[in-house]
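Shape matters. As here.
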Amino acid sequence: MHSHPNARLTQRGRLRLICQHLDQDWSLPELAADAGISLRCAYKWLARFRAGGPAALADRRSVRRHQRRTLDPRPLQKAVALRHQRLHLRHIARLLAAPFSTVARTLSRLGLGRLRNLETRPPVQRYEWERPGDLVHVDI
């Protein structure tokens, strides 16, 4: 992963800061001031190093590691019931406190994405006659 262009420390710089603190007994506040980072940030890197070693000093993604893309069974049943009451997807998402995209994706997968899909269509009425031409109507 690429380091931010304005980052004060790269992974190598973080490792050097931690090694100077642990091996050479330099104080962390002085090292943080020299590196141009806050003391809180220095303690964050120290805690990560102690938890996972040098590999833990790598940059992390800023997005969540696990994103829920489906609804649990109980909220799903509630969403289906609300949809059959002809509520809009945004309103259902607000009532369930779930992301709109998750609600829309889940209900669309069930065929309830459009309001017109909620109504049952009347059966097609076909006129069938015994002989061809019986249905022909001619006005003279």
